[in-house]
Amino acid sequence: MAFQPEQFVAAVQSLRPGLMPRVDFDVSNDGSGPVISGWYRADVAQPTQAQIEAVDTDALKAPESVLPQDLMAQFTADDMGKIQTAIASSPANSLLWYAMVAQRDPMWVTNARFLAGWTALVNILGSPRMSQIASALNVTV
After folding, report:
1. 73-84 pLDDT, tens per residue?
2. Domains of the chain
3. How far is CA 77 from the centre of its chain?
4. Of 101, 107, 88, 91, which Cα lies nearest the Cα of 21?
5. Could you give the CA distance from residue 133 to residue 116 in angstroms, rounded to a whole number?
């Protein structure tokens, strides 16, 4: 069992699944190693430094991720027509869509916002189509 400081974010995410760095928490190096420098989720308890350093980061599997541009490349003209109709009639779908379009970092498939967006796309495009997309992206959602 070993904790690797370079895997600090992965350790935090293993303790608090679904949270995203730079959105839900910030990490900085205080000179002695990485620490949580900002915690933005009042509904989720911040793990202690001792809890984080007790994580066996060697045993952690990297979460699956999708680049936003790779997901966008899967959409057909028919898909986009359905998506445009859905975002025009739903502010919630619109917010999810524009957040995804603006994102440049990999989207972790276990993240709550990604899962909400995926669920919305399943409702818009249907399960069979989103299964095809998941297969093309080689992710399990």
Report:
1. 999 999 999 999
2. 5-59 (3.30.56.60), 65-137 (no CATH)
3. 26
4. 107
5. 16
